[in-house]
Amino acid sequence: MGTIDFAPLFRSTVGFDRLFDLLDGATRFETADNYPPYNIEKTGEDAYCITMAVAGFGPEDLSITAQPNLLVVAGQKAKQDDVKYLHHGLATRAFERRFNLADYVQVKGASLENGLLSVNLVREIPEAMKPRTIQIGHAPQPKAIEAKVGETQTAESKKAA
Predict the structure, then answer these.
(1) What is the reported pTM?
(2) DSSP 46
(3) What is the domain count for the chain?
């Protein structure tokens, strides 16, 4: 698959660098490690859940780091030198998964149950960024100035008198 040239878009847009970088990264063919497997679910209008299969890892072996627009889930199992395996089929190798998050997506919590790590996310748009309705009012009418014929003296003529 060929690459897409975003140069024409760079000339006519401002502030979309991150979007172009994401699109460019998504179009590149990478032999990504698929460990550990995960699901991304939409649980509500602005709520999401990432579920990862981390069998063999305990809460002390996992770390979750939330940065602006990035979620990093890492696991490192402590070595157990005193264990002799007859068969070692559980993959407990170290891993790091990175998830790019949209603006205003926040991590609300995480839980580990039955070998599944669940990370709950929610998009909370600040009030200042939400659309608001503007009421249309009437412009104030200018007040008419009425002067009587005998009262049109200026301040200078009053001083002279």
Answers:
(1) 0.65
(2) T
(3) 2
Do residues 42 and 109 both lie within one domain? yes
**Segments in 7-154 forming alpha helices (H):** 7-12, 17-27
- Beta-carbon-side half-sphere exposure of residue 69 (alpha carbons within 13 Å): 5
Is 152 a domain residue? no
Is the separation of the CB atoms in 122 and 104 below 8 Å? no
Give 1-49 pLDDT, tens digit per residue. Answer: 566 776 776 666 666 677 777 777 666 655 567 889 999 999 999 999 9
Range of the domain at 117: 35-128
Coil, strand or helix: which one is 119?
Answer: strand
Residue type, 113: E
Residue type, 54: V
Q: Which CATH number characterizes residue 79's domain?
A: 2.60.40.790
Type of residue numbered 74:
A
